[in-house]
Write a structure and sequence with these properties.
six-stranded antiparallel β-sheet, 2 helices, Thiol Ester Dehydrase, Chain A, 158 residues, mainly beta
């Protein structure tokens, strides 16, 4: 298995201010994450306004539940990176891997746009626990808890 060693040069990392990710990332492109807007970002917290692409809706016009964890995964990973946002942007970031995720659904997501907030609950060593909440207006529609593990200094190309 190989990974690009410097994600800062990847197409999806070539963002404009307020954009979470640019086109070129498989999961991000599926969710049209290049259209998302950062509402708040500070160490340990990330809030983004996202939309519901037609291709992700079930026959009832709701977000198909199986795609919810994909939103969670992207927001959780980017939330972990908020703790090093003041780091030199030319430095390599550590690769992260999701080692556990639990999603709870409270109501169908049907709004054209909604808000997702990721917040670090605990960080110890190489492991970070992130809570992710989906809001339609002021109502929480889904909640997830994700455990992320940092993979520092791993040989990625050989």
């Amino acid at each position: 298995m190989t990974n690009e060693t410097d994600a800062t040069t990847a197409p999806w990392a070539q963002t404009v201010p307020g954009q979470l990710m640019a086109p070129g990332h498989g999961a991000g492109d599926l969710l049209e994450a290049y259209k998302w807007r950062i509402l708040d970002e500070r160490p340990g917290l990330l809030q983004v306004q996202v939309h519901l692409p037609e291709s992700l809706k079930n026959p009832q016009g709701q977000l198909f539940g199986g795609f919810t964890p994909t939103y969670v995964d992207l927001v959780s990973l980017y939330t972990v990176h908020t703790v090093d946002r003041d780091k030199d942007p030319t430095d390599e970031r550590s690769w992260l891997t999701t080692i556990n995720m639990r999603c709870d659904y409270f109501e169908p997501i049907v709004d054209a746009t909604f808000t997702i907030t990721g917040e670090i609950v605990n960080q110890r060593g190489l492991t970070t626990l992130v809570a992710t909440k989906f809001f339609q207006a002021d109502t929480m529609a889904a909640h997830a808890v994700t455990t992320i593990r940092e993979l520092p200094n791993v040989a990625r190309n050989g």
